[in-house]
Amino acid sequence: MMSTAICHRAVLPYVYGKDEETVEIMLETKKDMIKKVELIYADPYNFKGDNWQYQLSDMYQTGSTATIDYWKIEIKPPYRRLRYGFHCTTAQNESIIVTERGYFEEIPKEIGNFYCFPYLHENDVFQAPSWVKDTVWYQIFPERFGNGDPTINPEGTLPWASTEPTSSNFFGGDFQGVINHLDYLVELGINGIYFTPIFKAYSNHKYDTIDYMEIDPQFGDKDTFRELVRACHQRGIKVMLDAVFNHSGYYFKPFQDVLQKQTQSSYKDWFHLWEFPVETEPSPNYDAFGFVATMPKLNTANTEVRNYLLNVAKYWIEEFDIDGWRLDVANEVDHAFWRDFRNVVKSVKPDAYILGEIWHDSLPWLQGDQFDAVMNYPFTNSVIEFFAKQDITAKAFAHSLTSVLHMYPTNVNEVSFNLLDSHDTPRILTLAGNDKRRMRLLYLFQLSFIGTPCLYYGDEIGMIGGEDPGCRACMVWDETFQDRQLFIFVKQLIHLRKTIPAFGNKGNFRFLSTDDETNIIVYEKFTEDEQIIFILNNNEKNSKITVPQLENKAVKELTTNKKSTFEKDTIISLEPYDFYCFKIVE
Questions:
Q1: Furthest-apart CA pair in the chain: how many Å?
Q2: Rounded CA gap, 271 and 295, in Å?
Q3: Which residues pair with 572 in a beta bridge?
Q4: How many CB atoms sit inside 10 A of residue 260's CB?
Q5: Cβ(375)–Cβ(419) under 8 Å?
Q6: How would DSSP label each residue in 298-310?
Q7: Which tens digits make up the pLDDT trace of 233-265?
Q8: What is d(CA 82, CA 44) in angstroms, rounded to the nearest whole number?
C-alpha cells in the first residue's frame, strides 16, 4: 500500500540539476496522507567516524491534484554531490523514512539505502535559450497575413478576404505583407514570430514541401526574406521557422523520382515503401503523414536523408540568421535524428530555440539532448475546456494545470510554448461561443502563466473561425472591423508581463482556491520580492469569494473590469466573467 502512496525515483522529473549550482527534488504523496516532508541529505562522503553527517530541511507543497500532493525543495550541494531521502510525517503524526531501498521507522545508518545524485555536471543541466522566457510569440500563417506585393500572386489569387478560406484557395499573403505590418506587432508588444512553412510547396499551407532550400515564390525571394528577418531583428523580434522533416510533399523531387523509376530509383530508401510498384491511389502503399498520399514519410534513419535535412537546418540559420525551428510532427521522427539535429543547430547558433510539435507527455524529448521545448497542448486543452467550453469545473481545471506543471522540471516549464489555438484548431473566440468576456479570461490566464505564450494572428482583434480551413481566414486590417478594445486589453497584459517580474515568467505559480459552484479560481504569482493575486470568475452569474490572503494587506490594482469590489477586507464581489488582478504592496 505504501509503495503506491509515496513516489520518487532518482530520475527526471523527480530530481535534476536546475542550474550549475542547484538541484531540485520532488516527491509525490497520496492526497492528504502526508502533512509534512523533510529532505534528509548530505554529501555522500561527509562522515564523522561511522556517522553520516546529514541534515534535514523542510520541503514545501507546490500543488495538489485529486489524488496527489507534490512537494519540492532546492538544494545547493557545496561539492555538487548528494545522497538523500525523505522524512514524512503522516496526518496521524506517524513518521516514515523514505529511501531508495524502502521504508524505515528511523533514519538508517547505512548510506547505501539513500537515493543518489552522483554529481551536478554543467553539461547535464537543461539549458534553453534565456531570451525565450521573455518572449511573447505571434503565429503567422504567411498566405493569410498580408498581401504586400501583388506582382508575385500565384495564379488564381482571389481579392483579399473576398470569400471564405478553403483548403485550396489563395489570397496572396507574402513576406512584404508581413514587413508592412511589423510596427503593428511592435505596438501590440510581440517580440517573436512563428511562421508556418515558407518553403516551396504545392498547397496554401505549405506543409507538403517541394524544395527545402527554396522560398515559395508566392511569398517572395531570399532577398526579401533576408530583409524580413533583418527588419524583425531591428525591432527586437525573433524569427522561428517551421521544419517539416517527418514527411515531404508529393512533388518533392526524390519522391517523384521514386514514382517514375520505382525499384531503379536511387531515392527508394529515402522513404518507407511497403512494396513495388509504389502507388498513391486508392490509398498509399507507403508510410505517410496519417494516410495522406501527398505527404510521404521521410526515412530519417537513412544517411542521405539525414544529411540533407541537417544541411537544411544549418543553411537557414547561417544564411538568414533565423532564431529557431518549430518541428512538425516531431514525435514521429526518431530520437537519434533529433539529437543530431540539436548538435548541428546549436553548433551554428547556440541560443537558437528548438520547439517540437508534440501533443502529449513529452519528457523523452526534453532531457536536454533534443528539444528546448514542446508546444504545450496539455495546457491548451485544459484552458479551452475550462474557460472557452466550460466543460470542466474549477477544481478539475486546477488539478489538470497542477499536473501539467509537475510533468516537467521547472526550467523546462519556463520555456514551454503555451498556445490557445493555431492553424490546426478552431479560433479561441469561436471555441468560447463568441463571448469575448471568456476570451479575456483566456488571455489573462495565458499571459500570466509559466512559459512562453503564443498568440494566433488576428485573435487579438476578435477574428473568428472554426476547424481548418475556417481558422485560416485573411487577417483583418480595416480597423473599422477590428475589436480595438480587445487589442488594447491584450496589449496591456503583454506590457504587465514584460514589466512586472512576478506577473511574467520570473514568478512562481500556485492555485490558492477554487470554487466549483461559482467556477471562480484564485491563484498567485510570486517572487521573493513580489506577490500578485488573480481572481477569475468563469461564470455567467454575480458571485462572491473570500480571499484570506488579502487580510490586512494593501493592494495595487493591475487590471480589472472595473466592476469588482472589496467587502470587509477579504470578500470580493464579481460580476459575470469578471476578474481582478492586483499586487500586494505591503
A1: 85
A2: 11
A3: 545, 566
A4: 10
A5: yes
A6: B-TTSHHHHHHHH
A7: 999 999 999 999 999 999 999 999 999 999 999
A8: 6
Annotated active-site residue 328? The verdict is yes
Helices (H), 219-284: 222-234, 253-261
Query: At 574, which amino acid appears?
Result: L
Instruction: Give the long-range contacts of residues 486-491, CB within 8 A, separation 24 or more.
Output: 486/436, 486/439, 486/440, 486/460, 486/461, 486/462, 487/188, 487/460, 487/461, 489/440, 489/443, 490/188, 490/443, 490/447, 490/455, 490/460, 491/187, 491/188, 491/189, 491/460
290 bridge partner residues: 288
Q: Kindly state the cell numbers that stand for 235.
A: 525591432
In this predicted model, what pLDDT tens digit does every residue of 281-302 receive, in sequence order?
999 999 999 999 999 999 999 9
Q: What is the 3-state secondary structure (H, E, C) of 426-466?
A: CCHHHHCCCCHHHHHHHHHHHHCCCCEEEEECCHHHCCCCC
Q: Which of 69, 340, 357, 524 is catalytic?
A: 357
- The set of residues, in sequence order, having a beta carbon less than 8 Å from that of 319 and lying 6+ positions away, is 222, 226
- Would you say 18 and 409 are in contact if contact means Cβ atoms under 8 Å apart? yes
* Euclidean distance between CA atoms 298 and 258, whole angstroms: 13
For 75-104, write each residue's pLDDT tens digit.
999 999 999 999 999 999 999 999 999 999
How many angstroms separate the CA atoms of 226 and 53, rounded? 60
Give the bridge partners for 455, in sequence order.
138
When mean pLDDT is compared across 75-89, 206-220, 322-336, 550-564, the lowest value belongs to 550-564
Smallest CA-to-CA distance from 27 within 91, 106, 84 is with 84
CA distance 130 to 238: 13
Can 105 be counted among the known catalytic residues? no
Amino acid letter, 306 = R
User: What angle do helix axes 303-320 and 335-348 make, rounded to 10 degrees?
Assistant: 30
Which band of pLDDT confidence, cut at 50, 70 and 90, is reported for residue 551? confident
Rounded to a whole number, what is the distance in angstroms from the first to the last CA of the chain?
A: 46
Percent of the chain with pLDDT over 90: 94
Give the residue from 205, 210, 290 showing the smallest Cα distance to 252: 210
C-alpha 65/C-alpha 335 separation (Å) is: 32
Residue 386 and residue 240: Cα distance in Å, rounded? 30
Would you mind telling me the total number of residues written for the chain in this entry?
586
Q: Burial level of 326, CB count in 10 A (0-12/13-18/19+)?
A: buried
Catalytic residue among 208, 328, 372, 414: 328
* Residue recorded with cell 480597423: 479
Averaged pLDDT, 309-318:
98
How far apart are alpha carbons 446 and 205 in whole angstroms? 26
